[in-house]
Amino acid sequence: MDICEVCGRFGIGFGETGICRECRAERPPYVLARAVAPYEGPVRDALHIFKFAGKRELAHPLGELMAGLVADLYPYRTFAAVIPVPLHPARARERRFDQAELLAGVIARYLRIPLAGRALRRIRETPSQTTLTRGNRLSNLSGAFAAGEDARRLEGKGVLLVDDVYTTGATVRECCHTLQQAGIGFVYVVTLATGIVRDTA
Question: Cα 95 from chain centroid?
């Protein structure tokens, strides 16, 4: 199975460039994104248990897998901070934790990089992305995030953005645009899992 050299999604048929059709058509606003594994099988099962069964303790082994990937692939010593993709406060209260924040905390401790948990705020609660098309996901998230107080001290610096799953990349793109508007220098992305695309063009 191929891995897109830009968005990190797994797939088939990326051709000689090694870049998927979507990234060839429009370069994402981050430098690179990578995931530990495809969003299927045991990884998907573990994420569902972590997020929906309240098994917070899974943040540690899952976060360590992500941190190991960052240490292997990214120039992490240049990162000024680790930033989680935030849940809306209402969703976080319902779930009783924010999964990306827990994962980011593990990664920050493992790599000894400051955690900037208030660099991004989710200011608009959005419907679930699960059943939406890529275009609808992008419009669904428009204006959903705002830069928080931690973003001010990161102007001109590079950061690592953390989320649990990268599917179409709509959430990550919106977060990157928000951070860049606040003056962030560059963004790398790491997730536990990512979607699988079949790109034969």
Answer: 19
